[in-house]
Design goal:
alpha+beta, 60s Ribosomal Protein L30, Chain: A, 4-stranded mixed β-sheet, 5 helices, 4 strands, globular
């Protein structure tokens, strides 16, 4: 079982990510994404937009069941994070969470 908090911290230290709806959507569009993490607690239209792009561009996704504020805290940030696009996993094994959601 993957410890999401530990893997996210390692990802943020050693990998490359972008976060936020606009940045994640652009990264998906330009096909630079290995996977995305979406917080369940964001407004429905934003959630559906990210899922739509992930499916259209065949990007694996993982739905974090908490709010964007909780995802931000899990990442060690003091602000909400609605979504994360993984451009490079670094030393983390975060990509293993996407096996379930593909």
């Amino acid at each position: 079982m993957v410890d999401l908090g530990k893997e996210l911290n390692l990802l943020l230290k050693t990998g490359k990510v972008v976060y936020g709806i606009k940045e994640v959507t652009q990264a998906i569009y330009f096909k630079k994404v290995l996977g995305i993490i979406i917080a369940r607690g964001i407004p429905e239209h934003m959630f559906n937009k990210l899922l739509y792009y992930a499916k259209i561009f065949s990007v694996p996704y993982y739905i974090y069941e908490g709010s964007s504020r909780e995802l931000g805290v899990l990442c060690g940030k003091k602000f909400p994070i609605s979504s994360i696009a993984i451009l490079s996993p670094g030393e983390s094994s975060i990509l293993s969470i996407f096996e379930i959601s593909k």
